[in-house]
Amino acid sequence: MSDELQDTFTREDIEFEMTEEAKRVVTDVEFVRDPKRAAELDDTVRVQILKVLREGIDDTITSESRDEVTGDRIIRQREVKRHALSVVEIVKLSPECVGCDEITKNQVYHHLPKLIDAGYVIKFGTVTKGNRTTDYYRRTSKGFVVTTSHLGAEGKAARRKLTTYVDDMSRSFNLGLTEEQKKEVVDLWVELNALQAQGREKVVSRIRGDVADKQVLKQYDTLVELYSFGNDRVVEVFRKLRSIVFPND
Asked: pTM (2 decimals)?
């Protein structure tokens, strides 16, 4: 991933300069334990920028070689997903990102420095073409897991996502939920997420060292859910959800 731009910009009229930070290995997952740093995500635009960077953009790597026998020029192209994006690309891709709203160039320029200062994003490199330079940015990790009880914009985004999820689920499985029931299901699920969040710090405190493994993330989710069953309200919410979704069982 570290040479993704260098590989995609190979034309002679383009110069690419990679930053030192870009040489850092991108982890699969990072647990955000600092409440102050977690609070930096208390903004929907910042969350959306991170989502767009995670989705990336389709690009093509072009390589050129010579046939050793004939000397003929051979050009090969390979489709790739590029995750280092310019500000213009972030703005352009924002409406296509699932769960995102359209964001403006001014918003991206305003919030990118905050994401960089908080360690969520780095400046990956600069592409120079003639007198024009374009900076590209990349996430420091493929996934961020906020382990504090602070949800902020993530909580707001989760509610919107859950509303769509419940609507789709109701249609796909013919649950026959009324609009009022669907709203109640979303409210209960949001509450459930908040209750389970209380166990995040407890579970993450037991992680040994730095981890960058998706398997650890699955284990973390399992342990947070298990921990949450020590709270009677969690059990009550689960039962209430079941009674709404399966009223006759």
From this structure: 0.66
